[in-house]
Amino acid sequence: MSNRQITIIRIVIHIAALLPLAVLLWDFTQGNLTANPIREIQLRTGALAINLLMLSLACTPVYILTGYKPVLLLRRPLGIYAFAYALLHFINFIGIDYSFNFALIREDLFEKRYAVMGFASFILLLLLAITSIKRFRQRLGKNWQRLHWLVYLAATIAIVHYIWLTRVDISLPLIYGGVLVILLAIRLPLARNFATRHFKWLNRTTP
């Protein structure tokens, strides 16, 4: 793949990831965020964070199944944007919704278990984002890859957060959970060897 093609892919990723933010800002300025704009911002940023995180986690399994290496170029930017939207989700929660009233936030963390899960998932994503900086990657060496398996824990906690928050119709978060299990299974040695043997026809047809 040429440098030009790589650049085009990265530009497309940036546009696709930033477009929902532009729509959110537009809807905010136009007063189109329903009767409860704070909740709408919370829902949108949360959905974007988990969707981008799942897409980031899908990159390596897609590569394992198809041998299409350029898909790995999407993993890092998708992960960064997932964290960025999680950060907006967190700031909206503590800053706009709770006005940085940490006493009230602390009370809710004890009373609302979904808030605890959301906070825990964000802390893990923050840790992974910080250690993704080149200097930290070099210092951690091989331990960096081991540490970044925590992304699956962060995703699992985020899905639990979603389930406990939704309570009534949990079909969508359960779908996320099922997809996450499949993505993780493909990366395990047994499933990886199986996929390598049985999907060779895909590897041969990959440009």
Written description of the protein model:
By secondary structure, the protein is mostly helical. The protein has one domain (3-202). It is built from eleven helices and no strands. It has helices at residues 3-29, 37-66, 75-97, 102-111, 113-130, 134-140, 142-147, 150-166, 171-187, 189-198, 200-205. Helix 3 crosses helix 5 and helix 4 (102-111) crosses helix 5 (113-130). The longest helix is centred in the N-terminal third of the chain and has 30 residues, at 37-66. The mean pLDDT is 89.
Summarize this entry quickly.
The protein is mostly helical. The protein is built from 11 helices and no strands.
Please state the structural category.
mainly alpha
Overall geometry comes to globular
Helix content: over 70%
Instruction: Work out the number of β strands.
Output: 0
Overall average pLDDT:
89
The largest sheet is: none
What is the percentage of strand-forming residues?
under 5%
Cα Rg: 19 Å
Q: What is the count of distinct domains?
A: 1
- The first-to-last residue Cα distance is 9 Å
Q: Which regions are unreliable across 5 or more consecutive residues at pLDDT < 50?
A: none
Give helix and strand order, one letter per element, not per position: HHHHHHHHHHH
**Count of DSSP H/I helices:** 11
